[in-house]
């Protein structure tokens, strides 16, 4: 899609002392230090992009929305800006941007020919009076202008936070319609911010829990097409699916891929007992990982593919356990009050997100992989099903409103517990699965 990525400028970074800004690094490039204590976003100026006014305006707005949506940036309003940008190649009037307290400045130009566009941008450290990294140019189809905007925002975010990008990614989810006791559900795929929705299934049968493959090309999901839950795999490009399990006397659900895509781990109910099973995605060969007389479900691979975290009530209440890829005795990692479930291993490998029920409240939380440093991020009538952004900084989940007419909505929250916000969707949705960065 992006035919080339061209460096059009080669500019170096220098140290930037910012003694008056405690949220920023004191030495080195302009940088936000993301900690639990950060409360003051970085001020950033994103003046109108040069080029075709209509598409340049749309690209600018998506870049601004991506950055401010993190809660880490505060945009300088257009009416407060006093600098005359001139053209994309013009020298930056740093004094004018300092006068409005802009710490970072983004300039860009969008040009097009036929069905193609080129978007080039530069990022500046206003207080240091110099560029922050190289300028870059993205060439794309005109219909993919939103992806070009996400790519630019990802570059800016990474340079100013030191974190890996996540804006140019997609989320699989379940749309829900109808009353609570007769839901109609279908699977969709959208940009991480809720745009560009594509429907992957119709509403003819109940579908649950979509999960992206590591390359984003396919989706595992649970289907009730046969009357009982079974696992299907869906090809995103062709929007066609096929069954992976067809047990007449068993039910299969909660599937997830291993990081290399070779394995599929899932829950299998047979004879009234539910265990964790492993399937070779190439041959379909299957074997159990657990054989406990308890309910064991919601498995999730570690990023190195060597371990699996899952939910089990073998201790009397639902708790989190970790087991090796070759089986063995699981290790319990959750010991706090309440009931734990729906674990999801962070892409960074250092944290596990989970759902926790304590009293009459549900929470989304995170803990270290040994169960230490548990941190509760949310609290509501019903929060469930966390999924990680590709960079392991943000968690998306389902929040269900109470009452007979309460609807599920998708929300996201930073792992510091800050910046919780609903996704901009005009319908009820649940079961998010955050896919990888787009190529």
From TrEMBL:
The UniProt entry, under InterPro entries, shows: 6-blade_b-propeller_TolB-like, Tol-Pal_TolB, TolB_N, WD40
Query: Does the keyword Kinase belong to this entry?
Result: no
- Recite the UniProt keywords alphabetically: Cell cycle, Cell division, Periplasm, Signal
Q: What is its main location?
A: periplasm
Q: Where is the TolB N-terminal domain?
A: 30-130
Q: Which GO terms describe its cellular component?
A: periplasmic space
Q: Which Pfam family name is an example for this entry? A: PD40
Where does this polypeptide localize? Periplasm
Please give a single GO biological process term from the UniProt record.
Answer: protein import
Which positions carry the signal peptide feature in this UniProt record?
Answer: 1-25
The UniProt function text for this chain reads:
Part of the Tol-Pal system, which plays a role in outer membrane invagination during cell division and is important for maintaining outer membrane integrity.
Subunit and interaction comment: The Tol-Pal system is composed of five core proteins: the inner membrane proteins TolA, TolQ and TolR, the periplasmic protein TolB and the outer membrane protein Pal. They form a network linking the inner and outer membranes and the peptidoglycan layer.
Which family does the entry's similarity section mention?
Belongs to the TolB family.
PANTHER family to which the protein is assigned, alphabetical: PROTEIN TOLB, PROTEIN TOLB HOMOLOG
Q: What is this protein called?
A: Tol-Pal system protein TolB
Classification from the root reads: Bacteria, Pseudomonadati, Pseudomonadota, Alphaproteobacteria, Rhodobacterales
């Amino acid at each position: 899609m992006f035919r080339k990525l061209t460096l059009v400028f080669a500019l170096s970074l220098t140290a930037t002392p910012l003694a008056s800004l405690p949220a920023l690094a004191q030495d080195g490039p302009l940088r936000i230090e993301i900690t639990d204590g950060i409360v003051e976003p970085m001020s950033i100026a994103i003046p109108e992009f040069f080029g075709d006014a209509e598409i340049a305006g749309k690209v600018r707005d998506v870049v601004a929305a991506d950055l401010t949506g993190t809660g880490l940036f505060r945009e300088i309003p257009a009416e407060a800006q006093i600098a005359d940008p001139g053209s994309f190649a013009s020298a930056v009037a740093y004094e004018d941007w300092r006068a409005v307290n802009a710490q970072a400045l983004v300039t860009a130009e969008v040009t097009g020919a036929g069905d193609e566009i080129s978007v080039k941008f530069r990022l500046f450290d206003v207080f240091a009076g110099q560029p922050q990294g190289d300028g870059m140019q993205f060439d794309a189809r005109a219909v993919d202008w939103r992806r070009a905007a996400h790519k630019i925002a990802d570059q800016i975010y990474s340079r100013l936070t030191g974190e890996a990008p996540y804006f140019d990614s997609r989320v699989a989810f379940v749309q829900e319609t109808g009353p609570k006791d007769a839901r109609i559900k279908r699977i969709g795929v959208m940009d991480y911010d809720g745009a560009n929705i594509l429907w992957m299934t119709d509403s003819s049968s109940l579908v649950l829990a979509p999960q992206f493959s590591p390359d984003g090309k396919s989706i595992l999901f649970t289907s009730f097409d046969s009357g009982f839950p079974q696992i299907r795999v869906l090809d995103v490009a062709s929007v066609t699916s096929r069954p992976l399990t067809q047990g007449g006397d068993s039910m299969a659900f909660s599937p997830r891929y291993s990081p290399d895509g070779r394995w599929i781990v899932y829950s299998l109910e047979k004879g009234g007992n539910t265990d964790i099973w492993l399937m070779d995605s190439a041959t379909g060969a299957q074997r159990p990982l657990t054989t406990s007389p308890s309910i064991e479900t919601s498995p999730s691979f570690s990023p190195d593919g060597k371990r699996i975290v899952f939910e089990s009530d073998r201790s009397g209440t639902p708790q989190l356990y970790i087991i090796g890829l070759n089986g063995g005795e699981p290790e319990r990692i959750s010991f706090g009050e309440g009931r734990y479930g729906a674990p999801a291993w962070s892409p960074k490998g250092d944290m596990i997100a989970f759902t926790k029920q304590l009293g009459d409240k549900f929470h989304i939380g995170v803990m270290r992989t040994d169960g230490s440093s548990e941190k509760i991020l949310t609290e509501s009538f019903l929060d469930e099903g966390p999924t990680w952004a590709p960079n392991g900084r943000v968690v998306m989940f389902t929040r269900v409103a109470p009452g007979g007419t309460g609807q599920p909505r998708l929300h996201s929250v930073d792992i510091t517990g800050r910046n919780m916000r609903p996704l901009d969707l005009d319908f009820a949705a649940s079961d998010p699965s955050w896919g990888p960065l787009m190529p």
